[in-house]
Amino acid sequence: MRKIGITGGIGSGKSIVARYLEIRGYPVFYSDSAAKKLMEHDSAMRKVIIELFGEAAFTPTGLNRAHLASCIFTNPNLKRQLESLVHPAVRNAFKSWAEKQHTTLVFNEAAILFETGGEQYLDEVWLVVSPEEIRLKRIASRDGHALEQIRERMNSQWSDERKIPLASHVIYNDEHQSILLQLEKLLE
Q1: Which residue of 101, 125, 158, 171 could cross-link 162, Cys pair, CB 3.0 to 4.6 Å?
Q2: Do 71 and 130 fall into the same domain?
C-alpha cells in the first residue's frame, strides 16, 4: 500500500482533490478533522490542552478554536507545545487508519504536512498550488473572513515556492489546467 500526502496552502483546492479521490474509491484521511476530534475526545489530550490554555479552551459544545487561536497567535511557545501534542497523535491516527484500509493507495490530506515533517512518513506528497488572488477569493467567499485575516493565515503556512521542491508532484489549480486530468495522470 502506498501512502500519499495531499497538501497545499489554504484555499489551494486540497478538498477538491480529496473529494475526487474519494469518488474514485480511494480512502482519504483528513488530518485537520482528526486533530479536532482528538483534541475534543481524547481525555488525556483534553487535560493537557486545559492545562496549557485554561478552562476557556473548551465550551459546552466543544473545542474553543477562537480562544486557542488567539492564545497561539500571541504566544509561539504555546503553539509549539500544542503542535508537539497534536501532530504525533494525528500521525498515529493516520497510521492506524491506513492499516485498516484495503486499497493500493491511501491519501492523507493535511494543510501543513511539510511544516510538521509529516512527509517523512509518506511514500509521496502531492502539492496543490493556486495563485494567491484565486485563493483569496475562494477563502473570502467560503469563510467570509476579511482579507487581512486570510493573509495572516496564508502567511502562517509555508509558501508554495518553499514546498514545490519537496513535493513528489505538483497539481496546478489555476482555473486554466484541468485538475481532473492531472489527477488521472498521477493515478495511472
Answers
A1: 158
A2: no
- Reported as a single tens digit per residue, the pLDDT across 72-81 is 888 989 999 9
How far is the C-alpha of 58 from the C-alpha of 84, rounded, in Å?
A: 19
Q: Residue 54 maps to which CATH number?
A: 3.40.50.300
Say if residue 93 is in the same domain as residue 186.
no
- For residue 31, what is its C-alpha cell? 488530518
Helices (H), 100-159: 132-143, 147-155
pLDDT in tens, 35-55: 999 999 999 999 999 999 999
Selection from 3, 6, 1 nearest residue 114 by Cα: 6
Q: Hey, what's the torsion of the CAs at 100, 101, 104, 110, to 10 degrees?
A: -100
Residue 44 and residue 42: Cα distance in Å, rounded?
Answer: 6
pLDDT tens, position by position, 99-152: 999 999 999 999 999 999 999 999 999 999 999 888 888 888 777 777 777 788
Same domain, 82 and 147: no
38 close to 86: Cβ distance less than 8 angstroms? yes
DSSP class of residue 9?
S
Question: Which are the contacts of 162, defined by CB distance < 8 A and separation ≥ 6?
Answer: 114
C-alpha cell at 66: 477562537
Q: What is the DSSP letter of 109?
A: E
